[in-house]
Every structure is written in C-alpha cells, then in structure tokens.
Amino acid sequence: MKKATIIGAGLAGCEAAYQLSKRGIHVDLYDSKPKKMSPAHHSEKLCEIVCSNSFKAQRVNSAAGLLKEEMRTLGSLLLQCADKCAVPAGGALAVDRKLFSDMVTDAILSDPNITYIPEELTAIPQDGVVIVATGPLTHEELAKDIADRYGQSLRFFDAAAPIVAADSIDMEHAFYESRYGKGGGEDYLNCPMNKAEYEAFYEALVSAERAPVHEFDVMNPKVYEGCMPIEVMAQRGVDTVRFGPMKPVGLRDPKTGHRPWAVLQLRKENAAGTMYNLVGFQTNLKFGEQKRVFSMIPALRDAEFLRYGVMHRNTFINSPKILNSDYSDKENKSRFFAGQLTGVEGYMESASSGLLCGINAARLLCGEDTITLPPTTMMGAMARYISDPYVTDFQPMGANFGILPELQNRPRDKAERGQAYADRSLSDLRAFITENKLS
Q1: How far apart are CA 145 and CA 91, in angstroms?
Q2: Were 399 and a residue from 63, 78, 198, 271 both cysteine, which residue would form a disulfide, CB within 3.0 to 4.6 Å?
Q3: Domain boundaries of the chain, sorted by first residue
Q4: Is the pLDDT of residue 223 over 60?
Q5: Taking the alpha carbons of 183, 184, 185, 191 in that order, is the dihedral positive or negative?
Q6: Residues 64-79: what's their mean pLDDT?
Q7: Residue 97's pLDDT is what?
Q8: CA angle centred on 371, ends 369 and 377, rounded to 5°
C-alpha cells in the first residue's frame, strides 16, 4: 500500500491529504489537537481559521483572486468548501469560519484513504514520504527537531520590511549607488530626502497607529532589539533613524552633487529585480499607516506595496537554503514542507503549497517526476520565490504580481494589467495540466 505521513491538519495539511487521497494514496494525518493546542487555537476541528475570516479578493485580475482560480482549476478541496460557505464581503471571499472548519473536517474524517491521528509528533519521521505542515505556531519540540536538522535555519518570528514593485518607484527621485562606491553599481537604489521632507516623515512615523500585538507574539527582548521596528527606533530621537537605516554617509545625490539629509535604501528582493525591499524598515504599523507614511518618501509617493511589514510570532524555515521549487527537501526528496512553515504568507497561499505538496508526494510514490508549475502562474512563482537562492534575507511572502515574470506589451492600466497576468497564467496552467496529465 502506498502511504504518506502528514504532520499538521491546518489548511496546508488538509489540502495535501485530500490531493494524496484522490490519487489513491493512503494518508496518516497527525495533529496535536485536541490534546495539545497552540495559543491561537480553540476548536477541536481541523482547518481552524484563527484570524480574519477573509481569503482576500475574488476578482481574477487581482493576485489573490488569480491564486484562488488556479487552485480551483487544480481541484482544491478548501476552495470547494470556501465557496459553499461564503458570506457577503464585498469583492472578497470570506467564509463562515465554523461552517468552513466543519466542512473540511467532515471531508477529511469521512475519507477512507485518510486516517486522522490526534497525536503530537515531536520529530520528523525518518522513513517514508512525509509532509511537514505544522504552521507558524509549530510546537517547541518539533521546532527544535527541525532547527537541529537544518543547522538552526529556522526563524521564530517575522521581522519583515515592506516590499514595493520596482516599476512603481519614482526614478526621478531615486538613484543607484552603494556607499562609498563599494559593491555593484546597482546593488542599492537610494531614495533621498531633504531636511524638510525628512522632518515631516519623522513626525508622521512617530505618531502613526501600530498594529495590536498578541500575547504569544511578544518577542524575547534581546531578539527584539536586533529587529527593532522603525517607528520604535524613531521615538528615541529625531536623528536616530537618520543615523541608522536612513544614514546618508558615503552617498551623493547626482542631481544635487551633495549628500542628502536622509536616505532610504532599497535592495532587490528577487533575481528578476521586479521587487525591492525597504532596507531596515521592519515595522509593526498598521498596513494603511505604512502606505500613508512611507509614501511620504518622494521616490515612493506612488509606490505599489507588494508586501507590508510585519512583526509577529511565525515559525518558518529558511526555504531558499532548504527546499526545491517542488517544496521537497534538497537533501531528501521524500520529505516535503508545506504551509506558512515554508514562508508562504496567507491562508490560500498556505493551502496552495499543500495542494502542490500533495500532488508531488503522490507522484513520487507512483514513480513519477515531481512538478513545479509554470513561473507565469501565481502558484509556480511562489514556489520559485521561496526556493530562490538569490533571496538571502528570506522573509515570508504572499501572492502578488511582483513575483511573476514581466508581461510583453504591459498595459498601463492596473486592472488591465492584472487581467493580462491572469489570462497568461490560466492559459499556461491549463496547457501544463494537459501536458502533464494532472488529474
């Protein structure tokens, strides 16, 4: 009998189990519930939604909507359940969280190919095909086992700076240069500010509204000091940020010939150079506040934020060093990781990684080659991003158009551009499904 083991019965684990089962593979699905619950979980049911009940936008010309349409095309269990228990939410797909969890639980527990085992595994099994999908609040013993196996390549919190789309940066107010001319000429994109611009930015930064912090998100003070939010740093004095991540030393603005008063440096986030990271701008501001305050920097006045900064408890592996683009371990093709543990960020992103892990684990057990979806698809692009060796300061990432290859004849209108991405993705996905005989 062909069999796989899955650790974790959240969104990624349940989707992976379903994909394996529909391909005739038996699954042992382990979860610590109800004997041991994480601080965020309260229900004994599987696939519990612990934060917002929204799965983001429905429209296919949005990144989140395209991701869901790709998952529907590949036969996602979670999308089937979500569509059946949707509640009104404007243009978003939101669900009745209890009904959603009930429906997924019923589907998993009634599946003859899936054996649900309510026990905690404190170490990854050595033998057989295994999918680890324990999520951002992985219990301490298993987290230690993962850290020991992979040379401490495990993070226990997000301290992520925002990422913006390269083509939305105002290059009239930016210039390429490394400090003192060191390194490559285009290693950093600099966003200068004069004294008045910086002081206005500073006042907005120290008065901006912060996101609430859950008790289980509170970090070790020593760790917290090393990834201090930019707004906390700013409260130490008007020049603290200007002498820290926004220090202008070693730089001259080619437009003025002088050193700026302050400089935000942007660094390429991916090999294609379609995304830029705001260096040193880890933040816990509310998303709307990040957009408002950081857009006061002249080069970012019309910036499209692909990911906002976050600071919260989030166990995830250093995937670019550990995983292949099929979510398998580089050192052990029989071991897969899925969900937020891999650094994909979001409910459906987690489920989509579980979907691909389930497909690939089944193919491996059936003697077939594993797959990575085309880079033009959102699911394929995310898998490539989390396994991209170019990404050295890895932080979690959700679905966004910035990770997709550039369009030919790129429309200027945002909605038309999104539709063009979606049309290309779904066309390539359907062709890929036919070519690879994916059921």
Answers
A1: 42
A2: 63
A3: 3-159+314-436, 163-308
A4: no
A5: negative
A6: 97
A7: 82
A8: 165
